[in-house]
Structures are given as structure tokens and as C-alpha cells.
Amino acid sequence: MMRKSKGRQKVEMVKMPNESNLQVTFSKRRSGLFKKASELCTLCGAEVAIVVFSPGKKVFSFGHPCVESVVDRFLTRNPPPTSGTMRLIEAHRNTGVRDLNMQLTQVLNQLEVEKKRGEELINMRKASQRLCWWQAPIEELNQPQLEQFKNSLEELKKNVAKQAEKLLIQSSAPPQYFPRSSTPGNGGIHLPFDLKNTGFNPNMPSMIPPPPPNMMPPPPPNMMPAPPHHQGYNLGRNMTPPHQGYNPEFGRGLY
């Protein structure tokens, strides 16, 4: 069976007909070519100049110590200068290039480590999605999973409706207020019963409000004084009823 991917397969050395594949391959191969040239300069101290034209007619170059000096030496066929000053300059330049190559190597190694870490995270995410299948996109669920997901959503909708109705009833119920009291133990509320016992507490004051201070209840009907003509007196026009109050002369025969 033929493998679909081209990893670790021998690629036929012919020009690629696909334009996008050609551009991607050129970019990857160019980076690899420049990397190998840099390693050659670092390990062997070689002077290298590479000039590459892309399929889109763009120019890319790499050179050590620089492209111009190497190209000039190649065109004029002049030997490199051997003076002490030039040697010091070349040594300093090689030291800088060596440090840059070391930094590049460290960055590339770190990049490889991060790539592996990213692949591990992707694998862990896929594994967690298989366990928590309801978090996956709907397009990736099969028929049984979709039916189970639908039933779960309907049950959740019912529970939310019940909870919303319960909160609505609690918020619409009128609050019950009780007069305040300084009696400790009942939260300052004046209740007509004892919280500690089940029976009525007679020591609690009445909740019926007292009458206004200037209003007194009328006396019973049998205590009302009768009119004068009901007591057997027949008063004339110029006659006054007998005195019914206290007479200080009573007992002295003067009444």
C-alpha cells in the first residue's frame, strides 16, 4: 500500500509542476543551504559566497566574511591580504561569526524543543476531546453522541426553567414585618409567643394598639343618670330639681 505522505521518501529530481509547492520547497531548501554554508564556515574557517535567484526572480545571498569580498576575490583572482592588521580584522570577524552561529544553534535547538512540546500538547488535546466528546465541534459528533447531547440539553433547559420559576416566586412574595423589641434572643422582633416554648407567652405585651390618650370609653348603659322626669319629679316652669350633690349642712337639720 502506497503511503499518502512524502515523509522519508525519495523525491524524484524533476521540476515541480505545482507553483505553490515549488515556492514552499524553494524556501525550505534555501534555508537548509545557507545553514550548511554557515556550518562550513564555522567548522573549517572557509570563505563562502552564495547567490540564489528564486523562481519569482528575487535574489538571496549568503557570504562569509561577506559576499562582496569573496566575489571580488573570485573575479580578480587576487590572493587574500597577509598583513597583520588584516589578520586581526579577520580573527575578530571570525569570532563574531562564531558567536552568532552558537546563538543560532541554541535558538534552533530551542525551536525544535518547542515544536515537540506543541505536538505533545496537540496529542493531549485530542485525547481529552475523546474523553469529553461533548466539547468537540458538532460536525465531529456521530449520531448516538448527537442524540445524547440533545437529551442533555433538554434536561438542562427544564432544570433552568424550574430554578427561574422558584426564584420568581420568592421575589414576588410580600415580606412579613414584625414590630421591633429589645428582648434578646429573637433578633429584636416582637412576637406574641415564646420562641423557646411551644405555648403562648403571657408575659409578652399585647400587639393591639392602645386608644388615643384623650379618648375614654363611655360608661355602661346602667350607670348613666336618668333624666329628671324619670325620677318621679314633676317640675314646674319656675321649679328646679332637688340638689343631688353633697350638702355640707346635711346632718344639722338644715337640709
UniProtKB/TrEMBL annotation:
Q: Where in the cell is it found?
A: Nucleus
InterPro entries, per this entry? MEF2-like_N, TF_MADSbox, TF_MADSbox_sf
| GO cellular component terms attached to this protein's record | nucleus
Q: Which residues form the MADS-box domain?
A: 6-66
MF term (GO), any: protein dimerization activity
Q: Which SMART domains match?
A: MADS (SM00432)
- PROSITE patterns from the xrefs? MADS_BOX_2
Give the principal location in a single coarse category: nucleus
Enumerate the UniProt keywords alphabetically: DNA-binding, Nucleus, Transcription, Transcription regulation
Q: Which SUPFAM superfamilies is this protein grouped with?
A: SRF-like (SSF55455)
Instruction: Name it.
Output: MADS-box domain-containing protein
Q: Which organism is it from?
A: Acer negundo (Box elder)
